[in-house]
């Protein structure tokens, strides 16, 4: 856990997750628009090339994603064996491609990329914006016009109680938690915030690394569901 910031693989995971959001948007829009146009225009035959181009795009994207998952996440994804159809009729060849589980796995992965990218983008922005701002508090806490600390519109007060029945009596403990605004105006307070920022960054990097591990397993499951080449 403590060595995560010093491992090169950590920043490969962050790069993969940071790219997931813009790529996910492009994948989702391209796939949905391509399939919608292709299916709706297939009665006029012009939709068939659109469908073919969309399927080809999904296959191409999946190939690129396999490389990214191997290089950045360390995923174990061999090159898939699509298989060759010996059918002479075009209809049979198309059916072979459409029913291939690798294509459907790639389709699921491409559509799921947007959800993965949205979650990753949210975590990355939150972790680095909060962590770096806290970490750098000693550099700007005393600048004119700067306010560093926790600022609440109203104090938050909660009463916590624990009551345990004992024969005819009730024995318990109760205490009040009150959270109010807190402004840092001294160097020790700013250094305390800096330590908190380092902890936020360390925790966030570990969460992102765990997310990268999950993404690697998801890529292995969806991008190679069929047999692989020997």
TrEMBL record:
Any Pfam family hit: Sensor
Residues passing through the membrane, by range: 12-33, 39-62, 114-141, 187-208
Domain Putative sensor: 16-219
Gene Ontology terms for molecular function: kinase activity
Keywords carried by this UniProt record: Kinase, Membrane, Transferase, Transmembrane, Transmembrane helix
InterPro entries registered for this protein in UniProt: Put_sensor_dom
Protein name: Putative 2-component system sensor kinase
Naturally occurring in which organism (per UniProt): Halorubrum californiense DSM 19288
């Amino acid at each position: 856990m403590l060595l995560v910031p010093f491992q090169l693989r950590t920043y490969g995971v962050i790069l993969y997750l940071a790219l997931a959001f813009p790529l996910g948007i492009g994948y989702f829009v391209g796939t949905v628009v391509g399939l919608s146009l292709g299916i709706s225009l297939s009665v006029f035959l012009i939709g068939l090339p659109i469908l073919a181009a969309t399927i080809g795009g999904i296959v191409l994207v999946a190939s690129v994603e396999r490389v990214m998952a191997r290089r950045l996440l360390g995923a174990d994804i061999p090159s898939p064996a699509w298989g060759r159809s010996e059918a002479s009729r075009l209809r049979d060849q198309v059916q072979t491609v459409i029913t291939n589980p690798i294509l459907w796995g790639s389709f699921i992965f491409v559509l799921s990329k947007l959800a993965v990218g949205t979650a990753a983008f949210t975590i990355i922005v939150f972790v680095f914006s909060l962590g770096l701002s806290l970490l750098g508090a000693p550099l700007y806490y005393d600048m004119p016009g700067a306010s560093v600390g926790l600022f609440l519109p109203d104090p938050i007060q909660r009463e916590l109680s624990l009551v345990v029945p004992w024969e005819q009596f009730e024995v318990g403990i109760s205490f009040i938690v009150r959270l109010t605004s807190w402004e840092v105006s001294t160097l020790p307070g700013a250094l305390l915030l800096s330590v908190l920022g380092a902890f936020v960054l360390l925790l966030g990097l570990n969460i992102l690394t765990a997310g990268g591990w999950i993404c690697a397993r998801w890529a292995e499951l969806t991008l190679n569901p069929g047999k692989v080449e020997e």
